[in-house]
Write a structure and sequence with these properties.
The structure holds three protein chains of three kinds. In chain A, about 35% of the residues lie in helices and about 25% in strands. By secondary structure, chain A is an alpha/beta fold. A six-stranded mixed β-sheet of chain A has the order 6-7-8-3-9-10, with helices on both faces. Chain A has a four-stranded antiparallel β-sheet with strand order 2-1-4-5, with helices on one face. In chain A, helix 3 packs parallel to helix 6. By secondary structure, chain B is mainly alpha-helical. Chain B is about 75% helix and about 0% strand. Chain B starts with a helix and ends with a helix. Helices cover about 75% and strands about 0% of the residues of chain C. Classes of the chains: A alpha/beta, B mainly alpha, C mainly alpha.
Chain lengths: ~250, ~280, ~300
């Protein structure tokens, strides 16, 4: 295992009222790898992602304690600039949510938030990120169309390009292929594998085969607990815990 | 840059808070002024007597004619609108369930009709009344108000009925029920309190409107005593009494406004309570 | 009912449903045809252009110019919307984006009560509070001599009346925007206000315009409250402190005498027809606007 740790999660607890959503979670996420968080639905995977970029702030009923250290900064501390923090991470959600603008402006808006105002620079970067997300060739002539006219698969890649446009170090993806057809899913997966040289990727999924295909590192969660974590070989070939074995065997979902 | 943004956000947030409290404060002022004026002028005599001789110069009598007139008008119109409206709402959701386009067109027409000003109904009702040789009467007023509250009634019922799960319908079909049995037995029972809420809402609208019945109700100092007799209503009495220069007569307008507002508050309180219970007892599939 | 067997009951029920449905579906057309037939008499003598743009209203000598009423209606409606639109938009954003859920639970009954208060009670409130406020404080303060019964009074009362209507639509619109869109924007590093300004407002724009359109249509036809505070003077208003007269008020005010002068009732029915057409037109346009422009 690589010792270059990008994100360290220590004793993270999240609760909403009386229900405990995450219980004392400790995870190490290595740099420039794809870390897959695996587990049945409702086990707190999405909440974990939302903690990472502090979208939990939107839900006043959630109580978050513990530490999340990115490059040795605890991001849960209130004095962090959460806008800068969120720009360190690109988010890809379950369904694509393109902004209500043209395709071009979807990317340009992210650039603007990053502080890039020069038009030529914007132009160059829009093209660059669309290429990175494997979308440029399909839509180069349609840049001024509303983003909602794209197919779902294209929209998801647009969202990925938009996520890259804030110049993040980390990509957070929450079951990004669950709404997509197999071909678009494959596009996304290939893009992830290409991107991991430059980014640290955290991917939430419940598709075992997807995890097997692209993961370097696997974290298995169940009902708010981290059951097992390790490299993909360790977890898939030699699971130590009973629950992991059952899950990988397909006993419960 | 960031500072400018912060100031901008603060500024707009302040405006938002002001707008929100503006609405709440205005509501408080309205309620306060109605109650303050109304409570000063209301009395037992006012509630239990009809206008007596010299009423319009400030002598004795009360607004019982208007209270009872309003209630009978609103009851009549709500009943009639219910008899016509419930079947329409049921038909939309049971019989036309597969014809999305037809449902769409009818809902659209209903929304159009809902938007028509009540004075237009009033004018239409008046022409209809003349056309059929009627006099201004409770019946003519009931007809007019029925037309006016029909779209409100149907659309509110429709909103409730379209939440009835398809699984329940399928279960009923599999027991061998036919469509009208499903409509009148299953749907009405499943959405019972929602339907009552729709009825109460329509009742509130019906009892508060003046423009629709301005031409058709006529106005009388007597208690309503028959469908073909003219009838007084609370909104009309507020309107007429207020234009009087005599302060005692104006007081009766305030009292009428208080009574009318109370009736409507009670009705809306009821429908709110029902709405809450409805959410608790609804069967979820 | 139990005198009939199952099939017969089914037939009776179904027939009744269809009759009711047809009645309701044809209601807008019935209204239109009825009012049109009644206004034929006046349309026969005067051209449509003449009726709408002529300024003289003297029924006793057969002059029916609706221009002052139309202008008055437009004044009252537009000024009312100028108050309602920003107040509703700001409030809708505040209660859906900035406050906790329980605040919306306080707002909902408040909106319900505002919506439930009858038109005449609003009118009464206007006479008790708004009219004196304008004539005693606002007018003198601005150095304007006014009776209080004015376009401004009518607009203000009217704006309060349509607030619950517009606000309800707006709140629904903002609540129907998925949280994920907000999260997506925030995750780009946008502040909450930037999210609202650049994304939520844009997403909601067709709905917002439609809500204002529906509000405008509703305000245009409102009768009693306006009638009670607008002053009812037949002349072209020069400013918001002048009294005016609106189309609905014209109809409502003259119901008593309209049968004594020839063609008078036809002229009033024409006014009602105008209101009907304006209302149908606005609602129609807004409906198709929503369908068409949800492109983003």
């Amino acid at each position: 295992m690589d010792h270059d740790i990008k994100i360290e999660i220590r004793n993270l607890n999240v609760s909403a009222g009386k229900t405990q959503i995450l219980k004392d979670v400790n995870i190490d996420i290595p740099k420039n790898k794809i870390t897959v968080i695996l587990g049945p639905s409702g086990c707190g995977k999405t909440t974990l992602l939302k903690c990472l970029n502090r979208l939990t702030d939107l839900y006043p009923e959630l109580k978050v304690t513990g530490q999340i250290r990115i490059d040795d900064h605890n991001i849960l501390e209130a004095k962090e600039d959460i806008y800068k923090l969120r720009q360190q991470m690109g988010l890809l959600s379950q369904r694509p949510y393109p902004l209500p603008m043209t395709i071009y402006n979807n990317i340009a808006y992210a650039l603007k938030l990053r502080g890039i105002r020069n038009r030529r620079e914007t132009h160059r970067l829009v093209m660059q990120y669309l290429q990175q997300a494997n979308l440029w060739d399909e839509i180069r002539t349609r840049l001024r169309e509303p983003a909602s006219r794209l197919s779902i698969g294209q929209q998801q890649r647009l969202c990925l390009a938009r996520g890259l446009a804030v110049n993040p170090e980390i990509i957070l993806a929450d079951e990004p292929t669950s709404a997509l057809d197999p071909i678009s899913s494959q596009f996304i997966e290939e893009t992830f594998v290409r991107l991991k040289n430059d980014y640290t990727i955290v991917l939430v999924t419940h598709v075992l085969r997807q995890a097997k295909r692209i993961a370097d590192n696997v974290v298995f969660m169940y009902l708010g607990d981290v059951i097992e974590q390790g490299s993909v070989e360790e977890v898939f070939e030699n699971p130590k815990m009973e629950k992991t074995k059952l899950y990988l065997g397909g006993t419960f979902n | 840059m960031r500072r400018v943004q912060k100031i901008e956000e603060k500024f707009f947030k302040l405006l938002m808070i002001l707008a929100t409290y503006f609405i709440l404060v205005i509501l408080a002022i309205i309620i306060y002024s109605i109650f303050e004026k109304g409570l000063k002028s209301i009395s037992w005599e006012m509630l239990t007597q009809v206008p007596k001789g010299g009423y319009y110069y400030g002598k004795g009598g009360g607004i019982l004619n208007a209270i009872l007139g309003s209630l009978s008008l609103a009851f009549g119109a709500t009943l009639l609108a219910f008899i016509i409206g419930l079947p329409v709402a049921l038909y939309l959701n049971v019989f036309l369930i597969r014809h999305k386009r037809v449902i769409g067109v009818i809902r659209f027409l209903l929304d159009l009709v809902w938007g028509i000003p009540s004075i237009v109904y009033g004018a239409f009702g008046f022409s209809l009344m003349i056309f059929f040789g009627f006099q201004t009467s409770l019946l003519a007023a009931i007809f007019t108000v029925t037309l006016f509250i029909l779209p409100i009634m149907i659309r509110s019922m429709d909103e409730i009925l379209c939440t009835v799960p398809i699984g329940l319908q399928e279960a009923a079909y599999s027991l061998g029920s036919n469509k009208s049995e499903i409509a009148f037995k299953i749907f009405t029972r499943q959405s019972f309190s929602g339907i009552i809420t729709a009825v109460l809402l329509s009742f509130g609208r019906g009892i508060g409107d003046a423009a629709a019945v301005l031409f058709t109700a006529g106005y009388t100092d007597h208690l309503p005593n028959g469908l073909l007799e003219p009838v007084a209503t609370l909104p009309l009495s507020i309107f007429f009494l207020l234009s009087s220069p005599v302060p005692e007569v104006q007081d009766r307008a305030y009292a009428s406004a208080l009574v009318l507002t109370l009736i409507i508050l009670i009705v809306s309180l009821f429908s709110r309570g029902l709405g809450k219970r409805y959410h608790k007892t609804k069967i979820n599939f | 009912m139990y005198l009939l067997n199952r099939e017969q009951r089914h037939t009776v029920n179904t027939t009744w449903m269809i009759i009711s449905l047809l009645l309701v579906a044809f209601l807008p057309f019935l209204l239109f045809i009825g009012l049109y037939l009644k206004s034929l008499l006046i349309l026969h003598d005067h051209s449509l252009f003449d009726l709408i743009f002529s300024k003289t209203w003297k029924p006793s000598i057969g002059k029916f110019g609706f221009y002052p009423f139309i202008v008055g209606s437009i004044w009252v409606t537009v000024v009312a919307m100028l108050i309602t639109a920003p107040v509703c938009l700001l409030t809708a954003i505040y209660v859906t984006q900035y406050t906790k859920k329980f605040f919306l639970r306080i707002m909902h009954p408040a909106i319900d009560i505002l919506a439930g208060i009858p038109s005449v009670v609003y009118g009464l409130w206007g006479i008790l509070v708004i009219v004196p406020f304008i004539s005693r404080y606002l007018g003198p303060w601005l150095g304007i001599k006014t009776m209080g019964y004015s376009i401004l009074a009518a607009s203000f009362v009217l704006s309060i009346m349509i607030i619950p209507f517009v606000l309800n639509i707006l709140i629904e619109i903002f609540r129907s925007i998925p949280t994920e869109l907000k999260e997506a924007t925030l995750s780009l590093g946008a502040t909450q206000w930037q999210t609202i300004k650049h994304v939520l407002l844009r997403k909601a724009l067709p709905g917002i315009i439609a809500a204002f359109g529906f509000g405008l249509a509703r305000a245009f036809g409102e009768t009693m409250a306006v009638l009670m505070v607008v002053g009812n003077v037949v002349r072209l208003p020069q400013g918001v402190f002048d009294p005016g007269y609106t189309l609905p008020a014209l109809i409502a005010n003259n119901y008593g005498e309209m049968l004594s002068i020839p063609k008078y009732d036809s002229a009033l029915m024409f006014a009602a027809l105008l209101l009907l057409v304006v209302s149908l037109f606005f609602n129609l346009v807004m409906h198709f606007f929503i369908v068409r422009y949800n492109k983003y």
